[in-house]
Design a protein that fits this description.
Structural class of chain B: mainly alpha
Largest sheet of chain B: none
Radius of gyration of chain B: 30 Å
Order of helices and strands of chain B: HHHHHHHHHHH
Radius of gyration of chain A: 20 Å
Structural class of chain A: alpha/beta
Largest interface: A-B, 25 and 19 residues
Number of strands of chain A: 10
CATH class of chain A: Alpha Beta
CATH class of the largest domain in chain B: Mainly Alpha
Distance between the termini of chain B: 53 Å
Oligomer: heterodimer
Strand content of chain B: under 5%
């Protein structure tokens, strides 16, 4: 077991180095061309035959408004089981708003109004009998900034299973979640120390472990690496590749390379303005297999964005 | 190129010297007028601080000197007496302890509960919430004698009709300091970042579980600080107790919530009123005891805040 872990550890290090190098290259003046975005063949997933894929979410004309001002308009897309689905687009295009409708976190904003239909395994997520608390038990979320609780590492992971009244050995649940989040080796000797003593990357993996401990079906990640350095980012990306064996993942990211590296399918959103430029909202421009979005997009606006001409 | 040695021509030397002179002038002292203004303004500000501190220092010093002869253990252990040499603070201290214990019992659940409702449940931008907010702030500024009269009318007499007992004083003082507790507790709750709530709710915890197990524990140091400050305010209040029948001369020790009572500030007030000079000394000593108590409580509150406050 430990040998296997050691290998993955080393693996993730070299991966991280590679991604660090990739970022460093863009600062190299000898390379004027926009950084080419490589889609790793191994991670493309079986996107070919969608008819056989089980749908996790079906969004039908979803619009979200805050206090009457639209944030996202008429988004329709299908998100498939055990895939990584990326939402990319410029700031203010409603990516975060959209991902927050998927576990009803928008309910916490009193002025938010969601219209349209959002099916989760065929059930209307906004149906009258649906309790948002139950929704969030199944659909976990990892946030932009690591937000561990001001408690010990152990308590952070154990919190979810405790409040949900899960049966079973709590120690085992905590260990299992930390192992799956590739954090066990770093955390096992300091389970009782405060989570705030960890590095940013470790904190974010702790937040992922916390999410895994309640055994969700879907993990939503809202720019999970935007506050992290390249090495920590690489580790989280590796982690996502492992987690998609068991979970469906939706990730919002500003980083196009990241979307290209980790996702099976990518949705590109853009900001639209109304006539007198009073309101602005996000709209989906193109949604397809990641490889197609990054190598042969249908819409010229997608091409401009992913090739770095705009945005 | 690149090597900036000594200037090669006379013209260049003069130009360099001139440039250096200008730089030196810019870096040298400010104009005298500016310096003078600065000094005067700083001195005035210092005077303002000094006046406040000097007044306080004089009062404390004077009280210390006057009260020193009676500052001994008998002051704390002796009960009330008409003879100044036998009189002590025991009954008053016991009365204050009873009153404050019940004040604490009332204000912690009420104050924290109200703060939780306003901060976590009520829509913060609703008109009702704003109205409540303004009213709480106003209540915190209402003169304490008003609360005394309120206590007399509604608590000592009908509808509660408790009479002039410890509990009456406790309820009245609790109402008096409740706004302080609510304001401080809200502040403490607000300082818990929303990301903690989101993190907990995203795991499928209910709002109550989130508050009970994440928000409240993180806010407790701030809330405790507010409660201690409110209690020290309640200990020092004299005015509302006067209409509430706090006896200034009790021959017994207050023994429970329905016992007659006196309290520290009232005992001191009574001694100050006495004609014999020995009682003035006693009053000064009593003031020192109360000051020490309040300083101890406030220091504890500050320590609590600095020691346990969560840095986000």
């Amino acid at each position: 077991m430990s040998e296997v872990e050691a290998v993955t550890e080393e693996d993730s290090m070299s991966e991280a180095d590679a991604s660090a190098g990739e970022r460093a290259q863009s600062a190299d003046p000898s390379r004027d061309a926009p950084p080419s975005i490589a889609v790793r063949p191994a991670f493309r997933g079986d996107v070919g035959d969608l008819s056989r894929k089980e749908k996790v979410f079906e969004l039908q004309d979803i619009s979200v408004a805050y206090g009457g001002k639209p944030a996202v308009k008429d988004v329709s897309m299908e998100i498939y089981k055990k895939q990584v689905t990326a939402l990319i687009g410029p700031s203010g295009c409603g990516k975060s708003t959209l991902i927050r409708t998927m576990n009803r976190m928008n309910d916490l904003v009193p002025s938010a109004a969601v219209t349209g239909k959002l099916l989760y395994h065929g059930e209307d997520l906004y149906g009258p009998t649906v309790d948002p608390v139950q929704v969030r038990k199944l659909i976990g979320m990892v946030f932009q900034k690591p937000n561990p609780f001001p408690k010990s590492i152990y308590e952070n992971v154990a919190f979810g299973p405790k409040v949900l009244g899960r049966k079973g050995n709590l120690d085992e649940v905590v260990e299992g979640a930390l192992r799956r989040a590739a954090l066990w080796d770093e955390a096992k000797d300091r389970l009782d120390s405060n989570a705030f003593g960890m590095s940013g990357g470790q904190q974010q993996r702790l937040c992922i472990a916390r999410c895994l401990a309640v055994e969700p079906d879907v993990i939503l990640m809202d720019e999970p690496c935007s506050a992290l350095d390249p090495i920590s980012t690489g580790r989280i990306e590796d982690l996502m590749m492992e987690l998609k064996e068991d979970f469906s993942i939706v990730i919002v990211t500003h980083n196009m390379q990241q979307a290209a590296r980790v996702s099976d399918r990518t949705a590109f959103l853009m900001v639209e303005l109304d006539g007198d430029e009073q309101d602005r909202w996000g709209r989906i421009i193109e949604y397809d297999a990641t490889q197609k979005i990054f190598t042969n997009p249908t819409d010229p606006r997608t091409e401009d964005y992913v090739s770095g001409k705009v945005g | 190129m690149g090597d900036l040695g000594e200037p090669r021509t006379a013209r260049a030397s003069i130009a360099v010297a001139g440039a250096r002179g200008v730089t030196a002038a810019m870096l040298s002292d400010q104009p005298r007028k500016d310096v003078a203004r600065n000094t005067i303004f700083a001195s005035l500000l210092f005077l303002a601080v000094a006046a406040a501190l000097a007044g306080l220092g004089f009062l404390i010093g004077d009280t210390l000197i006057e009260g020193a002869p009676r500052l001994n253990i008998e002051l704390l252990t002796n009960g009330t007496s008409a003879l100044p040499q036998n009189a002590g603070l025991r009954s008053a201290i016991i009365g204050t302890v009873w009153i404050i214990s019940f004040v604490a019992l009332f204000i912690v659940p009420l104050g924290v509960g109200a703060a939780l409702f306003l901060e976590e449940y009520a829509a913060t931008d609703s008109r009702l919430a704003r109205l409540v907010e303004v009213n709480i702030q106003n209540l915190a500024a209402v003169p304490s004698i008003i609360y005394g009269l309120l206590g007399l009318a509604f608590i000592a007499r009908a509808p509660l009709n408790l009479g002039f007992v410890v509990l009456t004083a406790s309820i009245t003082l609790a109402l008096l300091v409740l706004p302080i507790v609510i304001l401080v507790a809200r502040e403490a709750l607000r300082s818990v970042p929303p990301s903690i709530r989101e993190g907990s709710l995203a795991l499928g915890a209910t709002q109550w579980q989130t508050i009970r197990r994440q928000v409240l524990p993180a806010a407790i140091p701030g809330i405790a600080t507010g409660v201690i400050l409110a209690l020290s305010r309640a200990i020092g209040e004299t005015a509302p107790l006067i209409p509430l029948g706090a006896a200034t001369f009790v021959t017994f020790d207050p023994s429970g919530p329905f016992s007659g009572y006196t309290a520290l500030p009232l005992q001191i007030f009574d001694w100050v009123k006495q004609p014999q000079p020995e009682f003035q000394v006693l009053a000064a000593a009593g003031i020192i005891v109360m000051l020490a108590l309040l300083i101890a409580m406030n220091s504890f509150a500050i320590w609590l805040r600095n020691h346990y406050e969560q840095r986000w």
